[in-house]
Request: fold
Amino acid sequence: MLIVSAILFSNTIQSKDNSVIMYATHVRQIDSLIPQMAVNKENCSLKHIKPAEIIGIQPPASGNWNIAETTIVRNGRLTINGSIFIRSHGALILKNSTLYMNIKYSGSDWIEVFSEGNFTILNSKITGYPTREYYIKINKNSKFLMDNSEIEYAGADWGVEGDKTGIWINTDNAIIRNSRIHNCYDGLLLFYAYNIKIYNTIFSRCKNNGIYLWYDASAEIYNCTFSWNSWGILVNGYASAEIHNNTFNGNDNGIRLGYSVGLSGNVTIYNNTLIYSAYEGIHLNPHTNNSKIYYNNFIENLRAFVVDEGCVDNVFILNNFIDNHYKSLDKSASIFDNGVVGNYWSEYDGHDNDNDGIGDDPYTIDEDSIDHHPLMKPTYLGEYEIGNLEELQSSQEPDSNMQDLFILLITALVGSTLVITLVIKRKSIFRQEKHRNLKTKKIVETKEESKSIDFDKIYKEIISDRNINIENVLNSVEKSKRKIFGRWLAEKLISDARYRDAKDILIKIEDYDRAVPLIISMALRSRSEGKLDDAKKLYLEAADILKKKGDLERAKSLIKESEKM
Reply:
């Protein structure tokens, strides 16, 4: 079991009516986490004292080690002063050993498995010595198995098609299980690699991604933990993935779909916990389509999700969105309910007059992103029927008048058995109409409130200036509107990744409830990037604000975190 400091919360959460709902276990912590599946450190992480026993081709004292037959390294340590090439019909099996790649400079040496080669890592560790970056290439038609093992400091730079980024897999049916991959450039990069199985594995402190699926790669990823990476998982191009039962903790972004070319493949994301993301739990880049996101827990992220423009047929349903610090953004028109049930939103303040567990008022993200059937309490895997998500994605909303006429005709033909259908439809229409009226009222009120201020015009004037003078910006609007403007401006700056400017504005307008979560998220990011002095200053800044608010207990906990830097 990994020895780390953390507070493990029970797998329950209390809803607004004080009922206790079961949901996926998650870990709440600032420093690190206690994963359920721990690497057996007695086997794979000991600094072996005695030299390993080598059966097969012996390595040279220096230079490249070419392996063209089955070679076993077991029960000790081995230092290689060069690259390792596992040739066709060759096999390297590491068992209960530590392999040190003693490289001259970053990226000078690597491990490469050629077609028909085999690389098996069992209860072992591979590391750079002294902490310099090597990389691992698993080429097409080769075999790769990593079990109960550890790899660190892999990945030097991008290379060609990402082949120097960490553990580059270009073969099918590879298996990574019960292991730990950390302090890499990318943990794994799957490139035209199919049917990859990754489970019970920890990915932490990777400069870019814990796992990157690129082009036509496909993988099932489950029971893994992703912490302190830039992105936990990135799925890009025409890749597809099934991502379930994982914990994403303290990453910049938990999961990112699409990047340079969008995402046209199928991605299913369910029963994961995404917590304390510095930016978003999930981010869908432009032209990301057909994603199914359900039964996940989004807890205390800066934002639960962002969906960029040009995305089609993405479904968010039966998720728990709990205490995320800023409202999610959907610049497309994603689907948030199946006509019967939607998601749980902790900030939802609607009513449930018929006590059916589903809110009578919709939850609105924006004008065309609406959860018409928000849940009144958190849900858990299997509580509700999801329905056919493919049909939901491909269906278009018919004209309501024609749909009513269709229901009436069918009712007349078949009889009273479909009266219930008509009642349900009428209730849905009433809810949507009520929502539209509320939305219109809010828009009118907002315009009346801010009609003397052209916020967008002011923002365009300052966005080109990387050094915003906070005093001048806030003084550009009348005093009575300053706080409203400051909040609006901070939201815009956060959307444009100008977090420090947003922080300074929130502090200036004394909106500490928004400022503190933002500062902590920034500290998490700095910490994951190794900028410990910056992280310490941010923790202390948040602690000072909490002291002003009288929240001495939370302030004390942040001061303790700063002392670890």
Notes: The first helix runs from residue 41 to 44. The radius of gyration is 27 Å.
